[in-house]
Amino acid sequence: MSAGTVNKVIIIGNLGRQPEIRSFQNGGRIANLSIATSESWKDRNTGERKERTEWHRVVVLNDALVNICERFLEKGSKVYIEGQLETRKFTDQSGAERYTTEVVLRPFRGELTMLDSRREGQGQDDQDDVADSARGGSSGAAGGGGGGYRSPTPDDGFDDEIPF
């Protein structure tokens, strides 16, 4: 990264459809998410309530986060996503070259946090699995960075006097 530039996107929104999980021949996996963010306002002239929804394409390349997407996210889930914008070129079915811009969560450079409270269909065992996974520092499911960082807890023995 060159000095003075930042490519960081933060989105808090709801999944518009089930996560799409794909596997590659080399064993890698990818999750594609469609996340909606909405804003509403009152029209000054008419007093009418208006709303606009923006759709965001999110690509998760971190395998631990792909597992979380597959196991716990569903249409309507509220999530916090932190990644970076990337534009790629592809050829559509008619052979035309097209471009798409996506929010990408790469290994060690992305975060995914589930914001929903426990749903009725979700059992305590599933919640414990997510918490255990997050404590392991690789999933990012409970706010970790997806790259191995985890917030210190009081029993971690961390000293508050960190020199940076």
Structure, described:
The chain is mostly beta strands. The protein has helices at residues 63-72, 124-135; strands at 9-15, 20-23, 29-42, 49-60, 78-91, 97-105, 111-114. The chain has a single domain, classed as Nucleic acid-binding proteins (OB fold (Dihydrolipoamide Acetyltransferase, E2P)). Helices cover 13% and strands 39% of the residues. Strands 1-3-4-6-5 form a five-stranded mixed β-barrel. The chain has two helices and seven strands; from the N terminus they run E-E-E-E-H-E-E-E-H. The protein is globular.
Number of domains: 1
Order of strands, widest sheet: 1-3-4-6-5
Q: What is the name of the CATH superfamily?
A: Nucleic acid-binding proteins
Just give the CATH class: Mainly Beta
Largest sheet: 5 strands, mixed, barrel
In the CATH hierarchy, the third-tier topology is known as OB fold (Dihydrolipoamide Acetyltransferase, E2P)
Salient structural properties:
single chain; 164 residues; OB fold (Dihydrolipoamide Acetyltransferase, E2P); five-stranded mixed barrel; 39% strand
Give a quick rundown of the structure.
This protein has 164 residues and is mostly beta strands. The protein has two helices and seven strands. It has helices at residues 63-72, 124-135; strands spanning 9-15, 20-23, 29-42, 49-60, 78-91, 97-105, 111-114.
SSE blueprint:
Layout: E1 9-15, E2 20-23, E3 29-42, E4 49-60, H1 63-72, E5 78-91, E6 97-105, E7 111-114, H2 124-135
Parallel strand pairs: 4-6
Antiparallel strand pairs: 1-3, 1-5, 2-3, 3-4, 5-6, 5-7
